[in-house]
Design a protein that fits this description.
Number of helices: 13
Radius of gyration: 20 Å
Strand content: under 5%
Distance between the termini: 33 Å
Number of domains: 2
Number of strands: 0
Order of helices and strands: HHHHHHHHHHHHH
Length: 249
Amino acid sequence: MNCPTNEMLHELVLNELEADERARVIEHVKSCETCRETLRELVTTYAVLATASAEEACPSGQEMADYASHAASAETQARVASHVARCRSCSFLISLFEASEEEREKLSRREYHLFRMAQIEKNAADVTQRALERLLPDYPGLFEQVWPQAEAFFESLGEDESFECEWPSLEERGQLVGALGFATSLPPSTRAAAVIAMTALAATAETALGKLEKDPGVLRQRVGHLARRFGAGAELAGRLSELLPNAML
């Protein structure tokens, strides 16, 4: 095949290509130095974007390529191996560099599922942080309080690899707090932060999976519905329906 477009290489990194097209692009990249270099640059860019606020940055695209081909120093091999064991996104990206044709056939549906979940979580975390900064600026530290529980709750729903699971209806604020592992006697700000995190996760997931149209009007309506479903009052639901779509698009 001819060299894939930059858009196709972006979609390869984001795992948005159909299976047959993905296989053709990967086969071409393995034999084309120009496309391999472009892919390394894209991997580095996405790694930087995904870990800009993380304590431990992902390895660069070149480091991951060297690791996959066993061309890195012993120190780099050990460091990248340790990181890849903990980072689902990098684990998936390494497979793009090192998989043979036979191994690519064996790449499990679960690996792609986990990579997709990781991307949704990272995007939703960014949306949640921006919403908390706008809506609850006088309460620092709320993200750190609620996000780990919201993320764990999402991962429990994501055990269904088809993502056909239904988000639970948690109209009672006490039910939402309890489901996230909090005691029911929480300050209103923490309850509101939990609703914001869950709404951001649900809306981001539905958009990423193509279940929700990327149209501002449609997003506003759906975000408002999700917020109320997770226990938001009329004011918070209205604020989120105006704020979250802008942060997501």
